[in-house]
Amino acid sequence: MKVFKNFVAGEWVEPSTGNYFDNRNPADLNDVIGKFPLSNSTDVERAVTSAKRGFELWKATPAPQRGDVLRKAGDLLTARKEEIANAMTREMGKPLTETRGDVQEGIDTAYYAATMGRQLSGRTVPSESRSKWAMSYRRPIGVAGLICPFNFPMAIPTWKMFPALVCGNSVIFKPAEDVPHTGTLLVEILLDAGLPPEVIQLLHGTGEDVGAPLVEHPDVPLISFTGSTATGSMVGATCGRMHKRLSLEMGGKNAQIVLDDADLDLALEGALWGAFGTTGQRCTATSRLILQKGIHDNFLGMLIERTKALKLGDGRKKGTDVGPLINEAALRKIEHYVDVGQTDGADIVCGARRPTGAGLDDGLFYEPTIFSRVEPGHRIANEEIFGPVLSVIRVSTADEAFAINNSVKYGLSSSLYTKDVNLSFRALEQLDNGITYINAPTIGAEAHLPFGGVKQTGNGHREGGWEVYEFYSETKVGYVDYSGTLQRAQIDMYLGTPD
After folding, report:
1. Which end of the chain has the smaller Cβ count within 10 Å, N or C?
2. Which uninterrupted H or E stretch holds 191?
3. Which residues pair with 392 in a beta bridge?
4. Per the domain annotation, does 496 fall within a domain?
């Protein structure tokens, strides 16, 4: 069995603990991919020391040259796309069609970041004084701690890492312990692309033993975290107390609204993809389906029929629609919420069991599940489940649908299917989410647009697009006074020389 290592201080090294964990294929728990390090605070300390050295080197590298490294990384990701997609599917389960898209997101992010190496612009503005220039520019911050989830093992780390690197920061990368192999492949590619070794550190292990010490380290001024709202709240408390810059991307309870005038075939495809793509393990997954009463019964029948036809299995096998859940804890959480839904009085109309046979017995599979007669106050309509469970809510009007969408504590993504252009623009304005799709599912981020949500989904920052480059850099203002005299700005010179 292959034993993998951390990458710290420019070398592939064993963890200081000497301990490892098995990385298993969730579609077949008998398939062990390899052993990965169980690191601790000692490893974090060594990584921070190295990353500080890397930062001093990297921040002095011209930003266009930093961008050139990421362009090369994009080329390498392109050349190895199929290999990485296969490794990712084996490691976390979603079908190859999805993992290929995951890698492509990393490729797109690499090329976008490469162009940003020539666009990290500030502003030059008029000074209020004579013979004086006033300007701003962007400069790097320091060591960035990146804590990433399992569901997009290539896309989300690149969303964080590539902008951080282009801006001139060094990074310490902690992938989720469920997807350490994809994280290792990403670091290998960056090194092959010419990234100076001490600019990147890779630490495997648990959130308690690696993530927490990274967040708490006084020499890591910058943290980006994607995960649960509960964990993000703890990260936020620590970073607030230590005055760190922090980006949080957390939970969601996303709704797809289908109105009576919608194209039902199109809305059906959106609901299936939004609810059961990545086995429902997306922060943008459709977990609520809000149906107007005129189409409710017909659409629900269409949805049940198509959902029952979805094929579960190993994502590397042709024809697989839905892969396994990521781990046993996730599977138990789904079963818990299925019990909760029934206790609340909703009806199971599809799924709600672990399948058997057909090569599924050794994997962490759960049938795509639909609840009908869900009320807006039910727990399954308010709490993030993060699995293939869809709650169907019936409404009379668009206004009622909008209100229900906005009633939860999260605000990541929403979707409206209608042919009414006026309602479409009302939805863009009134749905309380960071992202709203019209006639498209709740999932489908693009690398060149900001990604994130409101309320308990995030803390105001965005991943992706142009905004993330402001998060990973600091504004520095400079004044150049070439008048040869003391000009006391904002005191007595603004309106002219006083008497």
Report:
1. C
2. helix 180-192
3. 289
4. no
Domain total for the chain?
Answer: 2
CA distances from 422 to 272, 419, 427, 429 (A): 26, 9, 9, 11
Which pair of tokens denotes residue 497?
A: 């020389």
Q: Is 283 a catalytic residue?
A: yes
Task: Judge if 42 and 130 occupy the same domain.
Answer: yes
Q: Is the pTM of this model over 0.70?
A: yes
| CA-derived radius of gyration, the chain | 25
Burial class (CB in 10 A: 0-12, 13-18, 19+), 84: buried
Nearest C-alpha neighbor of 449 from the set 108, 25, 149, 21: 108
**Residue 132 is part of which domain span?**
6-250+458-477
Nearest by Cα to 22 from 204, 146, 153: 204
Q: Specify whether 258 is located in the same domain as 241.
A: no
Catalytic residue among 249, 367, 384, 463: 249
Neighbours of 498 (CB within 10 A): 7
pLDDT at 116: 97
Q: Of these residues, 148, 167, 283, 350, which one is catalytic?
A: 283
The strand ranges marked E within 351-388 are 369-372
List residues bridging with 102 in a β-sheet. Answer: none
48 and 88 in one domain?
A: yes
**Domain identity same for 243 and 266:** no
Same domain, 282 and 196: no
pLDDT at position 496, please?
A: 55
Residues lower than pLDDT 70 in the chain: 490-499
